[in-house]
Amino acid sequence: MSRRPVRIRPVAMVHYFPDARSFALGLARAAGLASAPVRVHIFPDGESLLHVRAPAPPRAVLVRSLHDPNARIVETLLAADALRRAGARRVTLVAPYLPYMRQDDVFAAGEPVSQRVIGSLLGERFDRVITIEPHLHRARRLGDVVPGRARAISAAPAVAAHLEDARGCLLAGPDEESARWTRAIARAAGLPWVVGRKTRTSDHSVRIDFPDLPGAARRAWRRAVIVDDIASSGATLAAAARALRKAGAATVDAIVVHAIFAPGALGRCRAAGIRRVLSTDTIPHATNAIPVAPLVARVLAGDAA
């Protein structure tokens, strides 16, 4: 008499939206977890109906990068509810890119503090929120924005590993806000670094000035690599490239964490003399070259320990 095989329900699983498939599968491989897609149906009026794998394991990891944020945030909140109703007792959101972090104060009468609104929504629905390099200014920790357990992971180790063979290279952060992680990348990769001073004149126009470098330092490097957390219009990268070339750089490349890149942005970068633009894979884009899912997998492993 044959016996049916016993199916063992996994204790944790990676659930992902179709637009996050590549990142999620890389995360599942690195973390040693099974994975399952979230199915999305859009009704004629624009509402979304979601289906998650049921029954869900006790620990669910939901993966979605939240660029083009408005519809994605609503669907992500719905997916959290679906996972709990399917049996998940603990739901972690991995949002490689987390939007609405820049509006952290009221800068003109009548504005919201978007950072607090989005942080509260996510904190209410998820037991933990994990992201890569959120654009925080006044908040020192992601936990100050998202109630409950929240973790912001630095992309510096992955970027530094990509630059291991970059001898004779100068790292350049475009402004004072980039100093902390530019320094972290430079120290990990063993490279000299500099930070510029940025003056924004409009949404698409900035001026960047780099401090004068000693003559010996100028002769020591001929290639500069601009590193920044977010690239949208490309104006900051273009202004930094023009300033670096004026300072003596023969070639200028750029590495960004979050490749938002509005239409025309890459063309603006190339017109300013940037030879090559690379990005991490937090947002799917043709420039993706640096995977960061292994960094998230290490955090998840610590959670399971």
Q: What key attributes describe this structure?
A:
alpha/beta; six-stranded parallel beta sheet; 28% strand; 305 residues
Please outline what is shown here.
The chain is an alpha/beta fold and 305 residues long.
Can you characterise this structure?
The chain has 305 residues and is of the alpha/beta class. The chain has nine helices and 16 strands. A six-stranded parallel β-sheet has the order 2-1-5-6-7-8, sandwiched between helices. Strands 10-9-13-14-15-16 form a six-stranded parallel β-sheet, sandwiched between helices.
Q: Could you tell me the mean pLDDT?
A: 89
Overall shape: it is: globular
Give the tally of β-strands: 16
In DSSP terms, counting alpha (H) and pi (I) runs of 4 or more, how many helices? 9
End-to-end span in angstroms? 40 Å
Strand content: 25-35%
Q: Given the helix and strand composition, which structural class is it?
A: alpha/beta
Helix content: 25-40%
> Main beta sheet, described?
6 strands, parallel
Radius of gyration: 21 Å
Major β-sheet strand ordering? 2-1-5-6-7-8
Order of helices and strands: EHEEEEHEHEEHEHEEEHEHEHEEH
Spans of at least 5 consecutive residues whose pLDDT stays below 50 are 5-9
Topology:
Blueprint: E1 12-16, H1 21-31, E2 34-37, E3 39-42, E4 48-51, E5 59-63, H2 69-85, E6 90-95, H3 114-125, E7 128-132, E8 149-153, H4 156-162, E9 169-173, H5 179-189, E10 193-195, E11 197-202, E12 205-209, H6 215-220, E13 223-231, H7 235-247, E14 251-259, H8 265-271, E15 274-280, E16 288-290, H9 293-304
Parallel strand pairs: 1-2, 1-5, 5-6, 6-7, 7-8, 9-10, 9-13, 13-14, 14-15, 15-16
Antiparallel strand pairs: 3-4, 11-12
